[in-house]
Automatic annotation (TrEMBL):
Cross-referenced SUPFAM superfamilies: MFS general substrate transporter
Listed GO MF terms: transmembrane transporter activity
Protein name per its UniProtKB record: MFS transporter
Classification via CDD domains: MFS_MefA_like (cd06173)
Keyword terms of this UniProt record: Cell membrane, Membrane, Transmembrane, Transmembrane helix, Transport
Native source species: Sphingomonas lycopersici
Amino acid sequence: MINALGLLKRRRFLPLFSTQFLGAFNDNLFKTSMVLFATYEIFADPKQESFFNALAAGLFIIPFFLLSALAGQIADTTDKARIIRYVKLAEFAIMAVGSAGLLLARAGVPTLPVILMLAAVTGLGVHSTFFGPIKYAILPQHLDEDDVLGGTGLVEAGTYLSILLGTILAGFIYHSVIAVAALTFAVALAGYITARQVPPAPRLGPPLTLDLNPLRASWRLVNGTMHIPRLFLAICAISFFWAIGSVLIVIFPPLVKNVLTADASVASLVLAIFSVGVAIGSVVINLMLRGHISAKFSPASVIAMGGAVLAFWLAVKSWTPAPAGTLYGIGEFVHQPGAAFVGLSLVGVAVFGGMFVVPLYAFLTTTVPKDQTARTVAANNVVNSGAMTIGSLVVAGLTWFGVTPNDLLLAVVAMCFVSAWLAQKLHLACD
């Protein structure tokens, strides 16, 4: 196996990597700007803030549940590079709707801006639903088998580094909605240019008759995949991971504002730490496994992740809040006695999370025929989205009834042990 970073020199990988990088950056620049703008500029109540964040997360995820089956069918019967270009064109329209919402919100228009922003988030969910199966399914078609794990790790690392950059930048420019609008359009254009450089990835198997009924197609897709024990276990383990992720992402901004008593720049920093940690974990696990696709480190990784979440809960619980009516900026925040503990525990959560999930994605794309990889990833996305939607709705409901964000962290710890049990069963069944 070549050094994974060497894949970045290949035309069969670099344009896809760049397109995914720019797309994830743009998604998170807009979503984080919107969430921070709503949290710090529109709402002034912790319940409303948490509910809005959970609703936005749920609306982003629902298209994965409804449309992943169709996306997988199309990706396995159509040139994947062509689909990528269509998806990137749609990004311009989505950003136009979202930018209009932000501009109207800044102008003080009631209700309509929130509707437009949530509509854009839903559109981004549709956008990601159709791109998601391709970014993994195209790798076995463009890369040698020994390079698939390295390529998967680089895609994951690049995704989370782009999330890092988009999240950090959003923390500094979210209040300037004109800057957000201009930058999202510029990045969408760059993404379309790189998408046009992705080499063809034509259909490999026989043509499919598309099932346009989303519920029936999803049921058939999942049923046709989940009866295979190894895929069932891998998909269930990944789904628990993303349910955990959805809970964490929903509670982070309100937790930072109302428990750590810090401003939007710190909320952006917390999300950024999480993102860069996952990127590090994605690279580390590739080095540990030496390109061999295996789940042997996944159980220990997610147990360690649970330990890091517990450490984060302790850090939050012992935090000294800012004086009443004030919020810590980044400079004040990092000089607080517990700041290092908060940061290190978050890094641990993210690094071990990346180490857990990357081998499982590589496993999905290499244990089925190449003409079925997109549908397998799509089946995984259907189940993942269901788990994430449930996680987001549970957070919204519990928060509405008074459960605090730091209390929800203990539920995340318990979920990590369920993921470890599933990963261990997969390891024993396949490795």
